Amino acid sequence: MAKPNKKAHLQDHIDHTAANLHEAEGYLDEHANEITASKKQAIEASNDRREESIKGFAAKINHEAQN
Q: Which of 51, 59, 60, 63 has its CA 20 to 30 A from that of 2?
């Protein structure tokens, strides 16, 4: 079984990363017309990496739960 502290630590990472993802999405919703295309692409690329990180953290939690 996963150690509670490790699971909580991973969940904190998920929560923090998800908050950053949602903040960036909100920023794009509000300011997409005011920023350059390259800036928009950079934010979208960061969000793609955030989504992958969240999936990875979730997989680690599942893996830890099985051990």
A: 51
Q: From the CB of residue 45, how many other CB atoms can be counted at a distance below 10 Å? A: 10
Task: Give 47-57 pLDDT, tens digit per residue.
Answer: 999 999 999 99
As a whole number of angstroms, the distance between CA 19 and CA 3 comes to 24
Residue whose C-alpha is closest to residue 18's, from 41, 61, 52: 52
Distance CA 12, CA 18 (A): 10
Average pLDDT of every residue of the chain = 93
Q: What is the pLDDT of residue 65?
A: 82
